[in-house]
Amino acid sequence: MPAAAVSDSKTHKFNPNFTAQVLAATGPNVNPRVKQLTHSLIQHLHDFARENELTVDEWMMGVELMNEAGRMSDAKRNEGQLLCDVLGLESLVDEITYKLATDAADEPTATAILGPFYRHDAPKLEMGSCIVHGIEGTGDRTWMHGTVTDFKTGTPIEGAVIDVWHTAPNGLYEQQDPDQPDMNLRGRFTTGKDGKYNFYCLRPVPYPIPFDGPAGKILTALDRHPYRPAHIHFLLTAPGHKPIVTQIFDRSSKYIDDDAVFAVKDSLLVDFNPFQGDPNAEFELPYDFKMATFADAKEGKLNGSTEESASL
Amino acid sequence: MPAAAVSDSKTHKFNPNFTAQVLAATGPNVNPRVKQLTHSLIQHLHDFARENELTVDEWMMGVELMNEAGRMSDAKRNEGQLLCDVLGLESLVDEITYKLATDAADEPTATAILGPFYRHDAPKLEMGSCIVHGIEGTGDRTWMHGTVTDFKTGTPIEGAVIDVWHTAPNGLYEQQDPDQPDMNLRGRFTTGKDGKYNFYCLRPVPYPIPFDGPAGKILTALDRHPYRPAHIHFLLTAPGHKPIVTQIFDRSSKYIDDDAVFAVKDSLLVDFNPFQGDPNAEFELPYDFKMATFADAKEGKLNGSTEESASL
């Protein structure tokens, strides 16, 4: 328990033994990591309630918001995640997880949050394919290409799968938009021996995160806008390498300094270059991904396979 | 922001500006109480994540638990509330709310958590009615009676509504149990000029809170039992008086020192006295309720009508 939290608890006017009593209810047969996380969460929640003299009505408003988020969540939408996102929590745990895995000076590609719009089983496509369907003449066709390498050796990685997804020009992901074909603007590409990849997509646009639910209520209550700067999502996997969840951001996009979910990192800013000579693309976007082997990524709970990891 | 939390933030190895950046996104047109609560919550959540080096996988497990709780919640069940209950949060905000309202030495009846099984619109019954239906010969029939008075003047309160609910001998509330009649073991009784009330109920039993959802997962993970000591719930309302949400506990019940939701208070312990001469009851339970006027309850956010109160 952080000493700071305990001293807070001692200066308030409420039952000084209450939190200790709740923590003491924990039995002996508890996973140490589960105990650490749950006890710390209880301490913080209780300190939060006492420091702010949280009333029953205010607490119940929070419970209803959480329940509403859960009811809105399904295979196509994760409102609980979105609620965390507008509070900066997903970007923070992303930073923590990345930092724990990465101590090298010459770092692998930085990570960014998965976001609530990832879908499993995007179509497996041939290199050079186009992931844009049912959208005509937007003037924003982009040829994206690059190489996936091992960040330490520089060796191209064979069999790396680049799973990509982004929004349509109307700012909607396909699962939010009945007018788009299923799995539009999504695809999975597998590298050959040279580690190279290339495909056609769109230069994305800023868009508002959905604000018809609890996350929107929080944004409205905090007098905040719901916009994200233009970005493309990636999930990279490769044999023997640590997966990378990331996004790349259009450096010239509106909201680049003011992302509603706080995901922008300097190393993930990219430039869309005007592109001549290809009738299928107005822009070119070169981008190389650098992955770490599991051995180079710091061992431990990140690999999801240690005794220490929490599970419920 | 508590100084303690800020100093925690300064000693970690992560982006030292991140939380400030999230807080700075708040616009100028924000209710001060909403700002206070949200900013404090963000600070605590971020400190929690950093202090424990929370990983993306661990955070996502929490999100899924929250979403699952929301999906299980409806008019008959509030799993988000139950999740808070096993972490002690509802009992804590109940204590805070009660303390804010009560400074007097001779205090009104202590409060206890509402719990997730309250239902609106319980049947309005005549004094002396029995709320037990479809349950035969358990040997635990109880005649409960007493007076509702103003805690300061001692005057009986006319028009006080006593809304009562408790579990059946099988440990289930009627909405959990298809074999019980709708609204079984619930009733609302309105006092006359003498402030007196009386009705027949059962001497309740300890029971496990539902553990087929996220709250049960938490209990299992913490190696804790799900039992509550025997208790009867009340919601008291009366013209001009502050409502009282409370429970009274059978002093001799198992789990009286080890309530899964931490709701027991000494002043709410009662004795079921063996009762002779009434063919309808084996026990007698005398209990007087003491209510405070709104004027005597400390004014402020408790009345739910001040500008300070948070709303979304």
Automatic annotation (TrEMBL), chains A, B:
Source domain of life is Eukaryota
Q: Which keywords label this protein? A: Dioxygenase, Iron, Metal-binding, Oxidoreductase
Q: Which InterPro entries match?
A: 1_2-HQD/HQD, Catechol_dOase_N, Intradiol_dOase_C, Intradiol_dOase_core, Intradiol_RC_Dioxygenase
Q: Where do the Intradiol ring-cleavage dioxygenases domain residues begin and end? A: 114-291
Q: Provide the Catechol dioxygenase N-terminal domain boundaries.
A: 31-101
Cofactor entry: Fe(3+)
**One function term, GO molecular function aspect:** catechol 1,2-dioxygenase activity
State the Gene3D superfamilies in the record. Aromatic compound dioxygenase (2.60.130.10)
Is Metal-binding one of the keywords UniProt gives this record? yes
Q: Name one GO biological process term.
A: catechol-containing compound metabolic process
Protein family (similarity comment): Belongs to the intradiol ring-cleavage dioxygenase family.
Name used for this protein in its record:
Aromatic compound dioxygenase
Its taxonomic path starts at: Eukaryota, Fungi, Dikarya, Ascomycota, Pezizomycotina
